[in-house]
Amino acid sequence: MIKNALLVFIGGGFGSVLRFLISKALNKQAFPIPYGTLTVNILGSLILGFILGMALKNDSLNNASNFLLSVGFCGGFTTFSTFAFENQALFRSGDYVHFAIYAFGSLILGLLAVTLGVFLTKFT
Predict the structure, then answer these.
(1) Nearest CA to 70 among 58, 83, 80, 61?
(2) CA-to-CA dists, residue 84 to 8, 11, 74, 105, angstroms
(3) DSSP string of 3-67?
(4) 78 among the known binding-site residues?
(5) Closest Cα partner for 40 from 64, 21, 68, 53?
(6) Helix or strand or coil: residue 70?
(7) pLDDT digit string (tens) for 34-70?
(8) 24-57 exposure pattern, b = at least 16 Cβ within 10 A, e = fewer
(9) What are the C-alpha distances in Å from 19 to residues 15, 23, 118?
(10) Helices 35-57 and 2-26 meet at what angle, rounded to 10?
(11) CB–CB of 77/44 below 8 Å?
């Protein structure tokens, strides 16, 4: 239990720092849609799909690397709370078009990215 918690802590730290750097590089005030958050959430979904697809393929869902990478890294890398806050801000400002594009685009692209990640494991 302590080992798994430590793995999640380490992976989450790396994921959070990488998310911060990517978001700061891509979230510019001139763009109505927060591309940094969108990018990390879609990329994180792709990575998570690949990791879990590999774990299912190798029947190793409970190993240490899954705690480090899926729960830790991907959990720290992606961010639902920021996504929700940014959507709320777009909605509150009356920017309903960008709100809809960001909200539904994130959902659809996220699901497609997880599916693609799992699909890619068939070729490894």
Answers:
(1) 61
(2) 23, 23, 18, 13
(3) HHHHHHHHHHHHHHHHHHHHHHHH--TT-SS-HHHHHHHHHHHHHHHHHHHHHHHTT-TTSHHHI
(4) yes
(5) 21
(6) helix
(7) 999 999 999 999 999 999 999 999 887 778 999 999 9
(8) eeebeeeeebbbbbbbbbbbbbbbbbbbbbbbee
(9) 6, 6, 22
(10) 140
(11) yes
CB atoms near residue 64 (< 10 Å): 12
Residue identified by tokens 């806050």 is: 85
Q: Is position 75 annotated in a ligand binding site?
A: yes
- The answer to whether the Cα torsion of 105, 33, 48, 9 is positive or negative is negative
Q: Is pTM, for the whole model, over 0.70?
A: yes
